[in-house]
Request: fold
Amino acid sequence: AQKITQTQPGMFVQEKEAVTLDCTYDTSDQSYGLFWYKQPSSGEMIFLIYQGSYDEQNATEGRYSLNFQKARKSANLVISASQLGDSAMYFCASRGLNTNAGKSTFGDGTTLTVKP
Amino acid sequence: DTAVSQTPKYLVTQMGNDKSIKCEQNLGHDTMYWYKQDSKKFLKIMFSYNNKELIINETVPNRFSPKSPDKAHLNLHINSLELGDSAVYFCASSQWGQGHTGELFFGEGSRLTVL
Reply:
């Protein structure tokens, strides 16, 4: 069983500043993956970044980085140099990796608004 | 070329009617999913198929019946629609195993409104 908690329903950030979106997880899987997805107001779901539970290095993808703290069971998304186009809803998700029957479980999301 | 495509994008229908949503992926993935996103934006998995075999069936009313004729297609049929079925339904695909992280590739969503 997996549970994802995103405690920030809404966040504001000034353009060009960095912002951290929080995510904590609870899983019974020994090996798991953590994901972040972006959903703009247009509605599509866009994959941003992935972190494996066995990865020692924090994942980075351009302006996105994942601050993975395994002992704390947290997988926070850091967006550097925020842009107006980053305004969207962001979902954290986890998936067990030991079986092809693993399903991605999503948090409730955080709405990020970037101010000019 | 769209990787995961679902049709129709919008459905507006009356209570009690039956409707279907179709999904196709051209990514060669083995696994396909249906997710439901409600009005509060909560995303919940409904079904998952791996190579045409049903592998995940969450607590979903049996009015919802998925069908996967081949691993590139996953359709969703809904009988006797109810007001609470109004939502956005996302189809997704992923590939699991060595060299793959299993991230989901989503379709654009199908917004179902039941009147």
